[in-house]
Design brief:
Blueprint: H1 2-37, E1 44-49, H2 62-77, E2 81-86, E3 98-102, H3 109-118, E4 122-124, E5 137-139, E6 142-144, E7 151-159, E8 170-175, H4 178-199, E9 204-211, H5 213-216, E10 221-226, H6 228-232, E11 243-245
Parallel strand pairs: 1-2, 1-3, 3-8, 6-11
Antiparallel strand pairs: 4-5, 5-6, 7-8, 7-9, 9-10
C-alpha cells in the first residue's frame, strides 16, 4: 500500500511540475511576443487602413481585409485590442499605441507620412500614368519595379522613435499591390519569433519579394535584403539609379 501511495504522490508531483514548466514556458513566449509587438495585456493598438474612393464610408480592398484579419489574430493572441482607423483620420503621434499601417503611399496618407518622416531613403513612384516605373520602389540607389502577378516587392518595417522608448512600435506594410500587403502580414505572422530573436525590440526594414502571385497568391515570399540602413539614410543626390531589378 505504501508503494502505491508513493507512486501516486510521485505521479502527482511530476504532473504538477510538468504543468508549471509548460505554463512558465508559455508565459515567457507570450511576454516575448507582447514585447516585440508592443502589446502588453489589455493594451490598445491602431490598424490604419485605406479608405475607398467610391464614397464617404470606410471601404477596404479584399486583400487588405485579409491583411487586417491576419493582424487582428496576432493582436488577440497578445491579449490586446485593436481600433480600425481610416488613413485620413489617423491623427496621433508616435509612442502612445502600437500602430499597424497597411497600404502603399498612393492610397494611404498615413503611410506616405511615415515614409517621409521615418524612412527618408525610400521613395515610391505614385504617378498615375502607366509608365514602367509606376509603383516602383527606390531604396537608396536601387530601384525595384513591379511586374503585376509575377514579381512584386513589399517593405515590412518595425520602427520606433525616442518618445516611445521602443515599447510602442509602428509596423509598416507597404506593398506595390494589395496582395503584397497580405503577404507581408502573413510573413510577419509566420516569422515574428525569428525576427524577435534576430532584432529584439530594435527597428528593422526588410525588402520582400512576392513571387507569381497570380498562381500562388500571397504565400510564396522571398526575403530580398535587410535594407534598414539604406531606408533610414537620406536618398543620394538625384541621379539615375544604378540597377533595375527585373524578373527573367
Amino acid at each position: 500500500m505504501r508503494n502505491i501511495v508513493l507512486g501516486v504522490v510521485a505521479a502527482g508531483v511530476s504532473a504538477a511540475l510538468g504543468w508549471i514548466a509548460r505554463t512558465y514556458l508559455w508565459k515567457r513566449k507570450l511576454r516575448r511576443k507582447q514585447a516585440f509587438f508592443g502589446l502588453p495585456d489589455n493594451s490598445e493598438s491602431l490598424l490604419v487602413v485605406n479608405r475607398g474612393a467610391a464614397g464617404p464610408d470606410l471601404a477596404v480592398m479584399r486583400y487588405d481585409v485579409f491583411a487586417l484579419l491576419e493582424l487582428a489574430a496576432l493582436i488577440k493572441d497578445c491579449n490586446a485590442h485593436a481600433q480600425v482607423v481610416p488613413h485620413d483620420m489617423a491623427r496621433q503621434g508616435f509612442g502612445e499605441r502600437t500602430e499597424f499601417c497597411v497600404g502603399g503611399p498612393a492610397s494611404n496618407r498615413r503611410m506616405a507620412a511615415h515614409l517621409s518622416s521615418l524612412l527618408p531613403g525610400v521613395r515610391v513612384n505614385v504617378d498615375a500614368e502607366p509608365t514602367p516605373d509606376r509603383g516602383a520602389f527606390q531604396i537608396g540607389p536601387e530601384r525595384y519595379r513591379v511586374e503585376v502577378g509575377r514579381v512584386e516587392y513589399a517593405l515590412l518595417a518595425r520602427l520606433t522613435v525616442d518618445q516611445s522608448h521602443g515599447t510602442r512600435p509602428v509596423f509598416l506594410f507597404c506593398g506595390q499591390t494589395a496582395i503584397t500587403n497580405q503577404a507581408l502580414t502573413r510573413y510577419l505572422a509566420r516569422n515574428h519569433e525569428r525576427l524577435s530573436r534576430k532584432y529584439g525590440n530594435a527597428g528593422f526594414v526588410l525588402l520582400l519579394k512576392v513571387v507569381n502571385s497570380q498562381a500562388y497568391g500571397p504565400d510564396v515570399v522571398e526575403l530580398v535584403a535587410d535594407v534598414t540602413r539604406e531606408a533610414q539614410a537620406p536618398l543620394p543626390a538625384p541621379a539615375a539609379p544604378r540597377n533595375s531589378h527585373r524578373s527573367t
